[in-house]
Model the fold of this input.
Amino acid sequence: MLGCRARALLCAWQVRLAGFLGRSPLSSNGASGKSGAPQCWNCGRARGAGCGDEFFCAHCRALQPPDPARDYFSLMHCNRSFRVDTTKLQHRYQQLQRLVHPDFFSQKSQTEKHFSETHSTLVNDAYKTLQAPLSRGLYLLKLQGIEIPEGTDCGADSQFLVEIMEINEKLADAQSEAAMEEIESTVRGDFEKAKEILTKMKYFSNIEEKIKLNKNPF
Done:
């Protein structure tokens, strides 16, 4: 029951944020603000928009290193949201592994072998993180600089759903910049409330895993 309620609250939280923080990191795929094409490590030319989802140089077709600024949502072609189409996510995962899996680079240079291993690990981590609601929600908070340490305790907030409805009503009626700023200030505090919900989900997820292990010990 807690998991369903938490997912509903987080979905509403994401929708509300997207409604008026349109220029914030939550509303993008992290692909803006890039200036100029990076150079290929192999041929030295601008890599361009080559075949293979920008993983390969358009000129020499060498596998390129991962982009350290690219987050999991961007990598897996998902919007930064608690709502993710897991079927599309799986298709994207399979597509990327067909591109960068180390098995396809056994005859390549040591540099490309290393890059393929790094890419493959990132793709696996991204898929596992975004596939499960708990890890997906925790990752959303991490992107906002909020992390939940192991063993963190939190208190229940029974007024959270009521606050969501009230803020949505204020958002619908907001007619001025001052009103929007007031709502924005309130929502930034909701990140901590989302943290409380996800902390509870961590505990229940851990119990669920123990139950699965006890039911299927081998």
